[in-house]
Amino acid sequence: GAGVSQSPSNKVTEKGKDVELRCDPISGHTALYWYRQRLGQGLEFLIYFQGNSAPDKSGLPSDRFSAERTGESVSTLTIQRTQQEDSAVYLCASSHWALNDEQYFGPGTRLTVT
Amino acid sequence: DQQVKQNSPSLSVQEGRISILNCDYTNSMFDYFLWYKKYPAEGPTFLISISSIKDKNEDGRFTVFLNKSAKHLSLHIVPSQPGDSAVYFCAASAAYNQGGKLIFGQGTELSVKP
How far is A8 from chain B (nearest CA, A)? Predict the structure, then answer.
């Protein structure tokens, strides 16, 4: 079946503009995660949704970052007033709801803030 | 505060030989460890995992070893193949306290030469 998809694949934006990144998880996966990878770094956890529970937002770096998820489907990550340090690859992953279940990653959105 | 560390940014190995990738962690609450493999312009893909109740898990050419007292894990690939060339990320979770979010190391780029 289809894997995790993300759009756009690349986004170039000017400093100060808002951007919205989209993630379509694997159908039936109740857990959804956002990570980001800056150049030369590991993946950094941002936010985690599990069913109807309150999301774990502990990784969001500032209040300019927010994310929403509609039910158990699409999620959008919004970055307001983008800064150059927001430039990174933003990765989405989904999994079945089971502790330690494998997370399946999308290809990522490469965000460049000029 | 880097809770998961991969101190070798790169490793070069001859085809057919063993590749050993290392990972150290600091958080004693971590109870599940994973290795992911990443090719350029793709999302990470799950490779192998180990629970903290075990010290070894094997899957074909891949074996993960966990030394809890040293807070160290390693991934052995034998025999190494050119197709194994990729960036390998170690990840950990404290699932029973923090849900499924993963804490990643910085990655080690493995190059397997024919």
Answer: 13
Contact partners, residue A86, CB within 8 Å, separation at least 6? A64, A79, A111, A113
Backbone angles phi, psi at B82, to 5 degrees: -55, -35
- DSSP character for A25? P
- Cα separation of B50 and B66, whole Å? 8
Chain B residues whose CB is inside 8 A of the A106 CB are: 43
- Asked if A50's CB is within 8 angstroms of B100's CB, the reply is yes
Residue B41 sits at the chain A interface (C-beta within 8 Å): yes
Helix ranges, chain B (H): 95-98
Closest among A77, A91, A72, A74 to A31, alpha carbons compared? A72
Instruction: Spell out the per-residue pLDDT of chain A, length 114, in tens.
Output: 589 999 999 999 999 999 999 999 999 898 999 999 998 888 999 999 988 888 999 999 999 999 999 877 899 999 999 999 999 999 999 998 766 678 999 999 999 999
Best to test chain B binding among A34, A37, A43, A58 (most B CBs inside 10 Å): A43
